[in-house]
Amino acid sequence: MIEFKQHTLANGLRVLANHDDCSGMAAVNILYAVGSADESPTRTGFAHLSEHLMFRGTEAVPSYDTPVQEVCGENNAFTSADYTDFYVTMPKENFETDLWLEADRMRGLNIDADTLEVEKSVVIEEFRQRYLNRPYGEQWHTLRDMVYTTSPYRWPVIGLTPDHIREASLEEVKSFYDRFYVPSGAILSVSANIEPERVFEAAERYFGHLPALPTPVRGNVEQSPLAAPVRKVIESAVPADQITIGFLMEGRKERGYYLCDLLTDLLAGGESARLFQHLVKQKQIFSATNAYITGEVGNGMLILTGQLCSGVTIEQAEEALYEELRLLAEEPIGDYELQKVKNKFEANITFGELNVMNKAMNLGYYAMLGDMALLNGEVEIYRSISAEEIASYVRTKLTPERSATLIYRKTK
Amino acid sequence: MRVPHTTLHTCANGTRLYTMHNSKQGVIRVSFIFRAGTSWQSVPFSASATINTLSEGTERFSALEIAERLDFVGSYFDANIDRDWAVLTYCSLSKFATETFEIAEQVVLHPTFPEKEIEVYCAKRKEQLIVQRSKPDHLSRELFGKSLFGAEHPYGITSPAEAYDSLCRGDVEEFYRTHYTAENCFAVLCGDITDEHIARTMAILEQLPHGTTLERTIPAPAPQHFATLNVEGAVQSCLKIGTPLFPRTHPDFIPMQMVATAMGGYFGSRLMQNLRERHGYTYGAYSAMINLDQSGYFVMSADVASDYTEAAIEEMIHEVERFCSKPMDERELQMVKNIIFGDVMRIFDGPFGVADVTIENIQNGTDNGYTERLLHQVATAQASHLQEVASKWLIPSNLTTTIVG
Fold this sequence. Notes:
The complex is a heterodimer of chains A (about 400) and B (about 400). Chain A is α+β, with helices and mostly antiparallel strands and about 400 residues long. Chain A has 15 helices and eleven strands. In chain A, a hairpin with a 4-residue loop joins strand 4 and strand 5. In chain A, helix 3 (about 95-105) runs parallel beside helix 8 (about 195-205) and helix 11 (about 315-330) crosses helix 15. Chain A is globular and about 60 Å long. In chain B, a hairpin with a 5-residue loop joins strand 1 and strand 2 (about 15-20). Chain B is about 45% helix and about 20% strand. Chain B folds into two domains: about 5-205, CATH 3.30.830.10; about 225-405, Cytochrome Bc1 Complex, Chain A, domain 1. The chains are: A alpha+beta (about 400), B alpha+beta (about 400). At the A-B interface, helix 2, strand 5, helix 4, helix 10 and helix 12 of A face helix 2, helix 4, helix 10, strand 10 and helix 12 of B.
């Protein structure tokens, strides 16, 4: 249970505060409502590039990191399809340092041609390190392209190609930043042993003078289901054959999201889960296997995947995965197994609230979703799911007709 | 800054338990630490196979029952192994401590290592290792270890994946019998704990059988200056440059840890500034002092665009020379100190981090007083001393460089 208070500044900045009396640290999180889904298809990777540029300094503060590190702080950031998140932990006495820095870089970023050039090559190296220089590296580019035809979820956060980054002009980059890095598109959240009123007062002091600017209009992320199954085979020098099946699923606030989350946990949440027990241990079809959801705010994907043991054919592996879905569809899950996954959610929530960082991040995330009741209310939703509801979902939604299948075949 | 201290309980058989009540959040963590890392094994993969198959079947429960019981109460379990140590950890909601201790007791004391489970384990791990060894970063770690210590050295050796074919139940059982003993174990319990949790943990430890106190001599490292491995189709080179040094107990370890922090321990560090911010050769460059039971090493590391391999190596060596030729200014020194203070404070945020600190201190033959002394030594360190220490240990012509890509 995360208790919080919230407050909105006149310029639209939303502020949330959790009073934690266990920790000597303060966590400050600032979330911007901009992600790769807000990019143009010919200029992808910009949200992520902007995240990088946020560390490149302003007129007033040439390096964001230096003052943070001087007050024993540690910071980082990530970009997703739906939002960009910056977070810091530091001794609670120093928390205002970060408010000052965040307010400064919200409007004052100082990007010139030289800093942009260097940051572009850093991002291109990241592209290479994560997506090109490793086996199966291009799988997300390929699978997203198969599942999403109109939605901007079609490209991964890193972008469609390093060329989009390489060709990005200073004007384009600046205009992207100007549009999205505004008070009304941001959410500040703090978890620390500090009274919420003090947080709000400090937020007024550091952010209050920033101008009220138009709230950024978000991209349309909706995607209609595939009309027919799609399939692709990549022959490549990978260490083992691999099969990945993706299904388009419901958005983050729909009931289908919770069903998918729970059912991927039945399949792959922990050692006792079905895929590991049946397909890795008993039948030895996969050396590793997983089931999970990608978790976008709009229509995300439910993924089933595995790396094949040598000697097993792609057909056998694919059949084995569908056999697990058939089991879920035809034999309703017993009370014990359903209780198990529900208990796991509850325990994970407790473990997830042990440090201030997770709490500050959660506050920001649920505020972005636009439904603070979900912050502490999701356990109830999971509890309300019945075995029949899961079976019916699998029967109607997780069928071969609705699937996108990506196969890697190892070249001899 | 105050470092939390633990309470020591000594069991009848001599095994030590360190405890600390430090949470109101309804969670506990217990770790069992055995001197049973990979450098202790004579049969390839037997040390990791032992800790990883402890939960694959016990006198009372099958592998599936163990997994089911832990998952049902939402407890999680982690088996971790490095060159020197094997650590089994359970985290649980306090209200499910009884269920969790019941499993821990079976796993630590009564594993049966079923033949069939060992077979499946070996087949699976072999496949996974082959996958790992297609990744440049994994290959880079292996090549660097080998080049730093020697291909047959306990801290450098790697074994072919085929060694899993001949690993059998007997090897695992033998490793368990000789290494999972009272003499070779200690435990750490923390979180929202009660006297009952302490008694329960001691009851497990007291049943550990006596064994012999294990001795060994780790040979001196035999570093190679340069090694390279070509990976077909690689678009980056994984670079590592370093040198074998000494364990944490050495008086120069903390100064060298500060040197490593200045070189590549934080975002504004020298390697990051040079290779990433100034040249854009890499997404990230790092440096660290690594502690081993009877050795240790300094390492710098970066994955760089293939075209800039030579240039990046030159810059990394240049940064070493620069560090050794001139003391850092006050501002940088203060920064390095703050980075280390911040890291220590962050570990103590949340109820479980103190266990990790305690484990490392006990492993090194000290206690949490060491962490206090570390903070004091860091706080009072002088730039000239760090320069002196770096010049003594980081001699460019002696460094080992490996390139994978």
